[in-house]
């Protein structure tokens, strides 16, 4: 990885443009499937960290806003500012306490204020500026507050058992990297990046949702592959038949594979003395 946090051959396209365009039919449904698979674990962690009444929160790259809304409805936080480059899925479902801001978090002048909780899930992995952003997001946390980052951990390494799913997942990560600069290789370093950003203590956990036919996570991967099929084929690692075989495999009892996990890492900003 180079100093900008980019790999050897990062893509020049951007999330939401080259792939995962919000205007594509039911892109919100795809993001919601991922949320269904991971929201319970995210909410449990945010509540364990203290999110509750009195907390002002920032949800960066909020997507369809499931975490933002559950922070308000279930944790009872005071307010959530949900930020996204495209807010169509956020403005469609307003709730009291939810403020929506359309903004590019990579913009040098992105400065929406200071918050007790700053949260970003499945966002930094798609942004080549990720290392700078860890520091920038830490700067938005008020003293005593917490920064929580969630990103994907790939479990289809060369040593993982070979199967139709693993072949297509490897092609997906490579295709997304070539197309938009997505990179998950740095994710295990997340706790250290938080520490380097001046947060302490830091900690992390990983959740791997079970791949079962018809489950939200299995449907999420199928939909994600369909939307990134062109990028996967361009890698030369798979062809259409291999993608179709992986889709059938995921929906069958033959499936014996590990989903990508969600690594959630958090760190506290020291309180002012
Ligand atoms: C994979 S989705 C994750 C959505 C949500 N955080 C979740 O976990 O369900 C990534 C989100 O980040 C947003 N995003 C991507 N690049 C962004 C940027 N530069 N600034 C703000 N939001 C961005 C996308 O529009 C999308 O809604």
TrEMBL record:
Transferase listed as a keyword: yes
Q: Which domain of life is it from?
A: Bacteria
Q: Which UniProt keywords apply?
A: Methyltransferase, Plasmid, Transferase
Classification via Pfam families: Methyltransf_11
GO biological process terms, alphabetically, are:
antibiotic biosynthetic process; methylation
Q: Which residues form the Methyltransferase type domain?
A: 58-149
Region named Disordered: 1-26
Q: Does the keyword Methyltransferase apply?
A: yes
The terms under GO molecular function for this entry are:
methyltransferase activity
User: What is the official name of this protein in its record?
Assistant: SAM-dependent methyltransferase
Q: Which organism is it from?
A: Streptomyces fungicidicus
């Amino acid at each position: 990885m180079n100093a900008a946090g980019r790999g050897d051959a990062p893509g020049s396209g951007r999330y939401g443009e080259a792939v995962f365009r919000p205007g594509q039919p039911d892109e919100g449904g795809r993001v919601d499937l991922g949320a269904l698979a991971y929201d319970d674990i995210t909410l449990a962690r945010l509540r364990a960290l203290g999110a509750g009444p009195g907390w002002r929160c920032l949800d960066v790259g909020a997507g369809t806003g499931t975490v933002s809304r559950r922070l308000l409805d279930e944790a009872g936080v005071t307010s959530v500012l949900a930020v996204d480059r495209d807010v169509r899925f956020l403005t469609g479902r307003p709730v009291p306490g939810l403020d929506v801001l359309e903004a590019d978090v990579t913009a040098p002048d992105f400065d929406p204020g200071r918050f007790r909780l700053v949260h970003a899930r499945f966002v930094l992995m798609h942004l080549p500026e990720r290392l700078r952003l860890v520091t920038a997001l830490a700067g938005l946390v008020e003293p005593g507050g917490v920064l929580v980052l969630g990103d994907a951990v790939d479990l289809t390494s060369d040593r993982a058992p070979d199967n139709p799913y693993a072949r297509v997942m490897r092609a997906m990560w490579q295709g997304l990297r070539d197309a938009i600069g997505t990179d998950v290789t740095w994710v295990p370093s997340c706790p250290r990046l938080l520490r380097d950003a001046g947060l302490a203590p830091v900690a992390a956990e990983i959740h791997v949702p079970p791949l079962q036919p018809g489950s939200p996570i299995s449907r999420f991967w199928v939909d994600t592959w369909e939307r990134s099929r062109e990028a996967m084929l361009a890698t030369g690692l798979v062809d259409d038949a291999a993608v179709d075989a992986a889709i059938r495999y995921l929906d069958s009892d033959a499936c014996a594979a590990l989903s990508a996990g969600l690594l959630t890492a958090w760190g506290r900003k020291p309180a002012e003395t």
